[in-house]
Design goal:
The chain is an alpha+beta fold and 241 residues long. 49% of the residues lie in helices and 7% in strands. The protein has a domain of 155 residues. It is globular and about 50 Å long.
Length: 241
């Protein structure tokens, strides 16, 4: 019976993120999201927000989400080539020298439920919006496997920490915000992810457009950004809106 329950759980999680993209397609109704289209990109404020979110997610390294239970030496590697409809992810733990530098040749594959690699249906860098909808949001809701001991709040906090690392890097190099030349919201999960993030900030009462244009260089404003994002995602996923 235990094996059967494990199989049923695995199938349930997989079916939410595939087939094709039912989980992403259900986001609008599940969270009461606005349905965006290419017409909305004609509005400069909307386009600015979309470009910011796209750039932020495209540069988010998934480190903290694989460093639970005090495992701070884990590193994440994602295959660049698609195999079996997705991209394999590996998490490797390295030993460190006295200065904290990685010691080559000491890497060991991480296999514990909370931190192990998973299968990505969308590439984190090349398809960041679809990746959030099909890969990250299911993980936020249910964790990495049936035995995952992390809580919803812990997973959201870890994901927000990775977002923070991304934005801090972007600010440090004064990176511009961008969209692919052919971006038009038609990719699976793209419109839903944008709507999800915008609603998270709306719930928190955070002025995202003002932040992008006037507050992003201020450390205190960025702290408020991270807090608002975490609170908004919590509220959305927990169904408190």
């Amino acid at each position: 019976m235990k094996k059967l329950l494990v199989v049923i759980y695995a199938l349930a999680v997989v079916s939410c993120a595939t087939g094709p993209g039912q989980f992403a397609n259900s986001m609008a109704s599940d969270y009461g999201l606005k349905k965006y289209s290419s017409v909305d990109l004609e509005n400069s404020e909307v386009k600015g927000k979309v470009a910011f979110i796209y750039t932020l997610l495209a540069n988010t390294e998934e480190l903290r989400v694989h460093q639970f239970n005090g495992t701070y030496d884990n590193e994440v590697y994602v295959k660049q080539e698609m195999v079996n409809g997705g991209y394999t992810e590996m998490v490797v733990k390295f030993e460190r020298d006295a200065d904290g530098n990685k010691i080559d040749g000491t890497g060991k594959l991480v296999r514990d439920c909370e931190n192990m690699g998973s299968f990505n249906y969308k590439h984190p860098k090349r398809e960041p919006l679809g990746h959030f909808a099909q890969d990250m949001l299911p993980w936020i809701k249910w964790g990495n496997c049936r035995e995952d001991s992390t809580t919803l709040k812990q997973r959201i906090s870890a994901y927000t920490a990775d977002i923070e690392l991304s934005l801090e890097r972007l600010v440090a190099v004064d990176s511009p915000y961008y969209l692919p030349n052919d971006f038009d919201f038609r990719g699976n999960g793209q419109a839903e992810t944008i709507a999800f993030f915008l609603k998270a900030f709306e719930i928190s009462g955070f002025d995202l457009y003002g932040f992008i244009n006037n507050g992003i260089t201020a450390a205190e404003s960025r702290k408020e950004f991270y807090k608002s994002l975490e609170n908004g995602i919590n509220a959305l996923v927990e169904g408190k809106v």
